[in-house]
Design a protein that fits this description.
CATH class: Alpha Beta
Structural class: alpha+beta
Strand order of the largest sheet: 2-3-1-6
Largest sheet: 4 strands, antiparallel
CATH topology: Alpha-Beta Plaits
Oligomer: single chain
Radius of gyration: 13 Å
Shape: globular
Number of domains: 1
Helix content: 10-25%
Strand content: 35-45%
Amino acid sequence: MNLFVANISRTVTEDALKALFSEFGKIASVTIVTDKYTGESKGFGFVDMFDDNEAMEAIRRLSRASFFGSKLVVSKAKPKTSIL
């Protein structure tokens, strides 16, 4: 299951986010979205977990959890839509 993670502190790395979510299960990938010009974090990203039950537990336990001084917002990611 792909999770959307918002309100990520600008100092958080993908490795730190992976370590946090790894407490709930095996991680397929972690991406923090960055500005293409400055390379700075935009404050949100995605965590893809292999097991849906573990992902739901991560949502339940990490939503509104304080991480690097920011309260995370964690939810199931919405699928990308094509703009044509």
